[in-house]
Amino acid sequence: MIGLSTYAFFWQISDRAPEPLGLEALLSRTRALGAQVFQICDYPPLQTYSDARLDDLRRCAEDQGIVLELGTKGIRPEHLANHLRMADRLGAKTIRSMVTAPDHRPTLAEAEALLRTALPAYEASGVTLALETYEQLSSTELVALVESVGSRSLGICLDPANCVANLEHPVAVIERCAPYVANLHVKDFAFTRRGGWVGFTLEGVELGKGLLPYDYMIGKVDPAARGINQIVEHWLTWQDDYERTARTENAWNAHNLERMRAVL
Description:
Elements lengths: L1 E4 L17 H10 L4 E5 L9 H13 L3 E5 L5 H14 L3 E4 L10 H18 L2 E5 L6 H11 L4 E5 L11 H8 L3 E6 L2 E5 L6 E5 L9 H8 L1 H4 L3 E3 L9 H22 L1
Parallel strand pairs: 1-2, 1-10, 2-3, 3-4, 4-5, 5-6, 6-7, 7-10
Antiparallel strand pairs: 8-9
Helix pairs in contact: 3-4, 4-5
């Protein structure tokens, strides 16, 4: 299935929005665009939701035929346990995370021990933890970690764009991670000359207009056959004012979903 993330509405839920959109509004937008999944990713207000509010959010998603996923950062067992609790209430079967958090950078050996502590509860609940590819940990190290833990509830959230900052080629990242992928972040990107002259800026573009080898990634991972959801994200830079930025964000969402449907 294909879907959207809170990162697909980055500016419309930010403090730059005159009236930031709430999760219920994002679910309605997702439904209107014909997507089937919504990933609540790195969304701090969710931590304050009561069980009753989580139940209401689950009903809102179910009424619109949308599958929920969660996303966070870090692998401390107590943190992962809290997100598993929320996932159970929301009916989410996938939780994306990252090995490091802003306040925690475990070694690979420490990460393995932490995951071994946290994952039995995930296995019992039938929930998958998908660790994302990103520049702070090479894809080789991430694959080695997943292989070492060897849990049926542990996989990789593949986002080749994140690894470019670590000088990893997207094709190499895709090939290395493909067997372990449990979730896909679809985010195209391109290099542009900063100020038209000195240096480069790595920023987002509409799917199919940048350097993400999307067709190759889909062929290699085969998400439809493996039941892997594809989640749209953006690296959309601020477009001078809020109205223009929001219009661009919404246009990219519609375009990217249509492009993904064409490939499927």
